Amino acid sequence: MSRLKISDGAGDLPYQVVEAKKGYWGHDYAKLLVFATVPACGYATLTLGESEPEKLFTAIPGDPRVDRFEDLVLENELVRAVFDNENAALLSFTDKKTGRDLIDPSRPAALFRVIEEDDSCGMTSWRVGRYMKITNIDTNVKMKKPALGGGLRKQFSYSAGFGASRLDVTVSLDRGSRRLAFEVECDWQERPVKGKFVPQLNFTAPVAYSCSGYRYDIAYGTLFRNDLDSDVPAVSWGLAVPQENGADALMLISKTKYGFRGTGDSLSLALIRSSYDPDPYPENIMHRFGLALELVPAGTANLALAENAYDYNHPLTCVAGTRHAGSLPAAASLMRRVEGSAAPAAVKLKESGDGGLIVRVYETDGKDTEAVFEFFKKPVSASFVDINENTLEGKAGIRVAGHRVTFPVPAYGVASVCVEI
To answer: Which end of the chain has a smaller Cβ tally under 10 Å, C or N?
Structure first.
């Protein structure tokens, strides 16, 4: 029996088969998790082949009469997460370096719940009503065989029925990550009752520390809000800010949901709402979405928070090909941020089509900074442009040296630069 071999040219890479089954037409297929380094805004070339066959051996089964109990724990070199064996709620989420636990077991986190909203405010598609009844989805939870052992990813799956609906969840933790990822499939069949309530599926994560408030990402920046028992919009994440200086914090990241609520030392996220106007049954379908809880070390800057969320929401794209000659290296980066507290908001070709590259950034930490970007090819020139990509005459400060472009960005400011390569 031969084994798969994955290499980046410098050496073999570790990999893990995270799913293997028959697909359509009876073909076998496998999903692989590969631990590789990919340059910023770039690519890496991996080769797949077969290594020498394994020697056959006879497996001697253990005693089938021995029942070994295994705690529901996801752990790597950075964090340890303990879940309730009965209902899969998160009971502990610990930073192994500091020993700080962000979850109070008396207030379990990572719970899905069904909420009945008061519909008396009207406009149910646009306005979230007052919570009247909250029911945790923590009974009749069926566990699938967990993969808690070694490898690049540890995970477990569970399912739960509630009302007329069903929830299937896979929770995973990767090597070198502080992020618990939740991949969810929900057959949502809950319906509103006009004049009585609107049903909502919700995810909640209480924390074990006192919060001074909550930080959310907005377009071109972040916004700190005080405790507010109401949904607020965020682009992709919310952070429960500790009252204690120098303490770890919990971050809630979403791929496609935007209604966050920070109140009572807790973060929550609205996932599905069955409003009844203007469409009487808009959400009664199969839903698939992802969200994550991340342990954020003390002192993490806003730029790093934005990068964490961006990494989760923009997984790498794989393109298969055959072995062939080419002029480009096996790995390269189109551009990368070298210095400064400015986060990229957009990288695009110039609308005029003359080959210019637009780089739009925003400053994240409230201080004047110099943004330094390095490009694969040497830039010919660079200039500030306005939102319509017209050159801003007389605005200086951009320097081009070798492969790098340096330019100033004011505190909480936005800058757009056109780079000619």
So the answer is: N
